[in-house]
Amino acid sequence: MTRSIKTQVAIIGGGPAGLMLAQRLQLAGHDAIVIERQTRAHVLSRIRAGVLEQGTVDMLTDAGLATRMTDEGFVHGGTGLSFLGRKLRIDLAALSGKPVTIYGQTEVTKDLYDALDTAGVRIVHEVEDVVLHDVTSDRPFVTYTAGGGQYHLDCEYIAGCDGYHGVSRPSIPASVRREFERVYPFGWLGILSETPPVDHELIYAHSERGFALCSMRHAQLSRYYVQCPLTDHVDDWSDDRFWDELAARLPDDAKSRLVTGPSIEKSIAPLRSFVAEPMSYGRLFLAGDAAHIVPPTGAKGLNLAMSDVYYLSNAFDDALSGRATTGLESYSTTALRRVWKSVRFSWWLTNLMHRFPDDGDFGRRVQEAELDYLANSQAAQTSFAENYVGLPF
Ligand code: APR
Ligand code: PHB
Question: Out of 30, 292, 300, 354, which one is annotated catalytic?
């Protein structure tokens, strides 16, 4: 037997995009249901980047989620780059007027779940066989199974927040959809270790041996990455090998301060840039990784999901309150303008900081010249800072 339920906005996917959308709709007095394929424990076990733009911090604050972020997050007024034996600190606060906040995406997701639980928003986990129906009509619906039962969910709008592997994007016909992609010829091997971070700010390191990144979660939890070939497997990387390789890519002073210890997590992630256009089709609206992927260089993934949700939640609010549907009509165009700027920045920073196997001597010299330019030009550093702290939305 199929059970029928009803909501104003059916949100597919309970990652940061879906949860933040649910929270903003809830605060605006609208009804939504989140349906998520995984268990909550699984969603909360995913380790992702941890740099929040000020716009994301403002959205979390507006959504009533400032407490733990303020207590436990770190505000960074600058970020470090190192290359060719040189060190450069980009003074983000002085050049752009804004800092960034270091607070893990896992914590953001946990805070969102807690707030939605308190507000009594329905979140259904472990759903299967999710299918979107009649998205170009004014009565779309979603069917799925959960806990052995079959469900028919009537709604006014569908928000596709189900990440890169979800069902929402493929529900837009291939004849309407256009996809843009760049796959990079390397991955990032990342570890978490219960050791003090090597520096009080992040270090993005370009070296002859490839890229490395020193990041952190808190005073006793460090997050480090090294660029590695896509053919590598985590088993190829003992902790000792990882620490030796990281140290070899860092400037001498950082190397001498590096505290090593056992890794508590180790994984390899490929790097890609991807954008699907348009981000809406009929009454279906995509947000976050469902519509675009950025390489982690610059930590734009979560922040971009948040700006999508900002535009989309305001547009839903206007439409559901009977004020206007213009926000929904222009959502794709508005969101894509910002998406492409973040895609550009993370592509640029990836190109600047990594060692590309096929670059050759010419490519390498151009890369060195660009780093030298960045080190010596306030205009270039201002442009870096403006993009790194996040363009306005
Ligand atoms: N039905 C329901 N849920 C689904 C389905 C499906 N068919 N397919 C995927 N999902 C869920 C996933 O299990 C995941 O929890 O959708 C969620 C999508 O979450 P994310 O992948 O985290 O994407 P998003 O919320 O857009 O967040 C973007 O967070 O995950 C990072 O790298 C990402 O930093 C980026 C940001
Ligand atoms: C991280 O802390 O995991 C992180 C930080 C900055 C990045 C990417 C990842 O650019």
Answer: 300
